[in-house]
Amino acid sequence: MPDIQLPDDMAAYGGILMDTRPWLYADTAADALRRLSLCTDTGHSEGWERPEHGYRVTGHLVTMAARLPELLGDIEYLIAVDDQRIEATDGADTQTELTALYAEIRAAQAVAKETVAALGRVHARLGTLKEKPTATPKKE
């Protein structure tokens, strides 16, 4: 198969060609976490046998979670930059809904930052653990 050069605004994940549509990346991330959960649930997956495997996975989870506050801020900006063209559904007051949305985004950002800190602590603790060496039988 020839090596294909993708434009800067495109990427391939799992054989799926993706462009700059954010929901595609969010969908891929959600699917990756679902698949990760399935792998770790069985306890019999290759690469899921020792404390260092948990350390490695947790490190990636820290990285992923650290991006959430910025992404939530991007969502807030998406709405705020053009909120005059937005209206609430079901006859609700738009300004009230926007104010509540912005407050929920800030609350979610704070929780995400706490989650990053907690995952960081888990990661650090996992770094202090290792598998015991296998005992070798003594020769007589």
Proportion in helices? 55-70%
Rounded mean pLDDT is 89
Tell me the series of helices and strands, N- to C-terminal. EEHHHH
Q: Would you tell me the structural class of the helices and strands? A: mainly alpha
Continuous helix count: 4
Low-confidence runs (pLDDT<50, min 5 residues)? Answer: none
Describe this structure in words.
- The chain has 140 residues and is mostly helical.
- Helices cover 59% and strands 4% of the residues.
- The protein contains 4 helices and 2 strands.
- A two-stranded antiparallel sheet has the order 1-2.
- β1 (11-13) and β2 form a beta hairpin.
- The N and C termini lie far apart (58 Å).
- The model has no long low-confidence stretch (mean pLDDT 89).
Short description:
A two-stranded antiparallel ribbon has the order 1-2. Helix content is 59%, strand content 4%.
Can you tag this structure with a few keywords?
single chain, 140 residues, mainly alpha, two-stranded antiparallel ribbon, 4% strand
Could you outline the blueprint of secondary structure elements for this entry?
Elements: E1 11-13, E2 16-18, H1 22-42, H2 51-66, H3 68-80, H4 94-126
